[in-house]
Amino acid sequence: MTASVFGDKLSDSGDGVRSIGAITAQLVGVKLSAKTRARLGRGDSPRSGEPVWRNSYYRGQIEDRVWKPIHDGTKHVASRWKGALLDRAKKLEDLTRRKRREKHPGCENGILGHVGIQVLEYLFGLVDYATGRLEPAIGTIAEAIGRSYSATHRALVRLRDAGFLRWMRRSEPIENPEPDGPQVRQISNAYALLVPQELRGWLGRLLRPGPTPACAKDHLAADQAELDAIAAKMTCAEWHASIGPEPKDKATHDSLAACARAVDARDLREASTANPPRTERPWDYSNP
Question: Model-level pTM?
Answer without folding.
Answer: 0.55
